[in-house]
Design goal:
Blueprint lengths: L1 H7 L2 H13 L18 H10 L11 H8 L4 H4 L9 H13 L7 H21 L6 H50 L7 H12 L4 H12 L9 H11 L4 H21 L5 H16 L5 H13 L4 H19 L4 H25 L1
Helix pairs in contact: 2-16, 9-11, 10-12, 11-13, 12-13, 13-14, 13-15, 14-15, 14-16, 15-16
GO cellular component, one term: exon-exon junction complex
Pfam family, one: MIF4G
Protein name: MIF4G domain-containing protein
Length: 356
Amino acid sequence: MSQGLEVNKSPSFKVTLKLAEALDMQPPVMPEDGHTTRLTSGEETVSSASGKDSSVEPVWDDEDTRAFYECFPDLRAFVPAVLLGETEPKVNEQSVKSQDQPTEILPESDKSQLITFESGEGSTESNVLPEGESTERVDDKEEKEKSKDLDIDKEKEKENEKKGENDKEKLRSVEGTNLDALLQRLPGCVSRDLIDQLTVEFCYLNSKSNRKKLVRDLFSVPRTSLELLAYYSRMVATLSTCMKDVSSLLLQMLEEEFNFLINKKDQMNIETKIRNIRFIGELCKFKVAPAGLVFSCLKACLDDFSHHNIDVACNLLETCGRFLYRSPETSIRMGNMLEMMLLPFIVQFILHAKLL
């Protein structure tokens, strides 16, 4: 009896009941088996998937598709580690150690040698002084010479600072022009080789401000250029191996845009909604966007499954539905979501057929 009750709670049995009611027939007796529910933990899903036959469909259709979504260029092999920001902590540690080294205690033998050397210098300086010249005049001359030297040093420091500021401004202007030229090439990267080359070139302009500019340009992809989303997502996935803030910033912007659009409850900006959800789906296939984010977006659409939410849900499934359904970690959950999504369609079809 317990197994029967659990089976009755399944979405498939609910569909069967609706169909039986529409046809004025008795529902069939569902077969009892050990798997009464579709909900299991991730570890059980992986173990069950590994125990299945080899006839299970692979995640990717062909090797080229798998390589596109899983094999990225190694940035550390093409770009120096300094440009990737991975050697700064080591440099700082070395500078701290060099500052701590002069405070080491010298042995007593070295101390005695230093004392004798200093006393010898003092005696020689006293012998060098001319006999007819007083110590006060010598002190005045030395102070004047020191003040002159200090003035000269200050002027040199000011000149060096000005030169350094000018050089920094020139570098910034050069980097700005180079970054602008690089960002203008983004819409033309419609192949794996082009986007990988552009990713490596961006690493030579790597800085926190430049990363933010890149994320803004990636986020503002034209809503009619959906073919670019896969290549932009590959660039983000490649950069996230060394620059974690690129993926986190983009995901935050996409999630905020999705929540804004779905809470607005209007039937405008359908192209923007589709661009947003397809971008999230592509990032999911690169394992940049977590599967939980995709399922939360899909559930938000199913909670109000009407008008544009239907289009958004269908585009999400078209982008990454097969990937999530074939992945062992998310297969069962994706199957449950599909049954929830198909239930209203089946009911409407039955009612329409009954009316005819």
